[in-house]
Amino acid sequence: MAGDLPNVLLLGPPSVFKSYEREFSEKFYFLKPWESSIPLRQFLSTHAGSVKAAFCSASSRVTTGVLQNLPELRFIVTSSVGVDHIDLHECKRRGVKVANAGSIFSEDVADAAVGLLIDVLRRISAANRFVKAGLWHENGGYPLGHKLGGKRVGIIGMGSIGLDVAKRLNAFGCIISYTSRNEKPHVKFPFCPNIQELAAKSEILVICCALTDQTRHMIDKSVMLALGRDGIIVNIARGAIVNEKDLVECLLQQEIAGVGLDVFENEPNVPEELLELDNVVMTPHHAVMTEQSLRDLYELVVRNLDAFFSNKPLMFEVTRV
Amino acid sequence: MAGDLPNVLLLGPPSVFKSYEREFSEKFYFLKPWESSIPLRQFLSTHAGSVKAAFCSASSRVTTGVLQNLPELRFIVTSSVGVDHIDLHECKRRGVKVANAGSIFSEDVADAAVGLLIDVLRRISAANRFVKAGLWHENGGYPLGHKLGGKRVGIIGMGSIGLDVAKRLNAFGCIISYTSRNEKPHVKFPFCPNIQELAAKSEILVICCALTDQTRHMIDKSVMLALGRDGIIVNIARGAIVNEKDLVECLLQQEIAGVGLDVFENEPNVPEELLELDNVVMTPHHAVMTEQSLRDLYELVVRNLDAFFSNKPLMFEVTRV
């Protein structure tokens, strides 16, 4: 505790903290284990009595081990949409509430998904490289791309991101269907309960679901084969939803036509085989990252920490386990 | 004339001819000046009596000089949307009808415009390069992009391409206005008669108009300064609508934030200063180019040549001069 500011344990730290450190630090006193010379576990037990709230990013794992060292912890706010890095069962057992970034990134992520898809279909990054290398002048023609309009797109996960992707691709004349844990009564697009079936009837798959035990490696070779040789996959959700080994194999054997990937199984490591492929467009887990959404995130995190410390309702509390 | 097939003078030749040469050649007998050893003018006067129809691309200039050599010519079909390579006044004077590709590329061009815009705003090509060069692992963070939603977009030229761009960007939550020769009663977006004013109130300009004497170099330094330092320009129309010298200067002096360019003043030459800039995304005059649209174009050209030779109404006849 510094002055009258409430203590918040900072894990990571999230990139929004780096951008808004001054503003954050006017409102809360942050405990920063990485600035301490003592090991994390010891740091946590030293501060155990004073830590009621923690702020983390998707890259900090909040495991049973971490939670055991923080018996007074009652609230975790994460800067991410995904909560697969947090042991939600253990949090529930211990009475630790969790809040995520909710839907504040949905539009940015949906924009990035559409951008990656057009890039793969129309070969924009590869064409840009072609022009910048001076090859237009020497080589003349450039391979044709593929039309987006009329394509059958299967959206995997129809939360706020999936819905924003669907709205956008609908305006391009795509034919949308989706799969999700359950059919969503408010969604007008056709529901398909089975991922194999969705892949078989789609030319494009856009992965927008959460990473859970059920979705881990859900997009495997059998799904890719069902999608077929002209198929394109865009993943802006979590890397591990795709079996990356199968993905590399299918790309190298031209079992699918291309991919747009913002996320990877083992970030920041990217399968080496993908680095040379023109039909693979990759961004560094960046689909949420705009200046505007970072500002919105800063405001949301402050609002949630304020709400927690004053016993008010949280925004985007994660209730599923 | 070979057999009973009608003669068509082929200029260029258009890339659709190369892709569908066999199919085209079953329906028409094409005169190919570039396969002849004699100079073009002599080739033209040799065949002058038999040439009633010509088929060209945007890269073949049909000047008064060319037309003078073809007194029997009555029809030119171009594979392009733009007709700035054809002397329309001289055609009218000589009773030569002209047909272009009409709106068949509109969706593809609009898709490419949106793709280029998202690429520039969200730095997709540059991020892809970053990941592929292995820099994510070494450098960690990557600069933030900018949100598309809520951006004020000025569309220059509200023909079928402009309208398709507007429909798409509307679904992303952009605020659209447009300029055009005249206000379009069927368009719901606000009209702005003046390009300077449109630039001043926009954060993004998308150029979708034809190249004419009025639009040549219309997007010059004064327009770019009115657009401002955060401004982005996308050009999928014709290179010469932009003053490329001014554009290079404004980019180097950071008077505008970025550009997405599919077209250039002097194709395939691209200003050398642009090759190294990450905020410049370039494609090789490729916005119309998908396999699907090439097929549609083939069918349209055949339909128009058939219509001409059987005195039936043309599709997409160009009536303005």
UniProtKB/TrEMBL annotation, chains A, B:
Record CDD domains: HPPR
Any GO MF annotation of the entry: glyoxylate reductase (NADPH) activity
Domain D-isomer specific 2-hydroxyacid dehydrogenase catalytic positions: 48-318
SUPFAM superfamilies: Formate/glycerate dehydrogenase catalytic domain-like (SSF52283), NAD(P)-binding Rossmann-fold domains (SSF51735)
Keyword Cell division: no
Keywords: NAD, NADP, Oxidoreductase
Domain of life per record: Eukaryota
InterPro entries recorded: D-isomer_2-hydroxyacid_DH, D-isomer_2_OHA_DH_cat_dom, D-isomer_DH_NAD-bd, NAD(P)-bd_dom_sf
Residue ranges of domain D-isomer specific 2-hydroxyacid dehydrogenase NAD-binding in the record: 114-287
EC numbers for this chain: 1.1.1.-
Similarity comment: Belongs to the D-isomer specific 2-hydroxyacid dehydrogenase family.
Protein name listed in UniProt: Oxidoreductase
